[in-house]
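Lab meeting, item 3. Inverse folding demo.
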């Protein structure tokens, strides 16, 4: 069985603590993609499709209704981008692959 994507992160509790059943990365809105030559590493900023069902009280008090996630991919060995636009809705897959983690947009 495949590990849930958030369990492959350095801090899986950051996601697991916000949801009774953590969301998939289907239908996320990719806001930003930054490639750094040091590392090399890639940073993805995305809006999750589902708001947490266990948000911190201060989020509700301030009227928050969306959650944005930053994924930092360290020691990146390859990056392929086929298109980019003002709207970048994607189904992301994060899974263990050989000696690391593979992230793909479907």
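The presenter then showed the designed sequence:
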């Amino acid at each position: 069985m495949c590990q849930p994507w958030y369990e492959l992160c350095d801090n899986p509790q950051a996601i697991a603590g916000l949801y009774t059943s953590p969301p998939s990365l289907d239908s996320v809105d990719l806001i930003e993609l930054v490639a750094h030559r040091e590392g090399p590493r890639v940073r993805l900023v995305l809006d999750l499709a589902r708001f947490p069902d266990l948000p911190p009280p201060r989020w509700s008090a301030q009227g928050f209704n969306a959650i944005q996630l930053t994924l930092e991919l360290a020691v990146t060995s390859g990056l392929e981008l086929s298109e980019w636009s003002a709207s970048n809705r994607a189904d992301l897959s994060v899974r263990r692959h050989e000696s690391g983690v593979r992230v793909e947009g479907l």
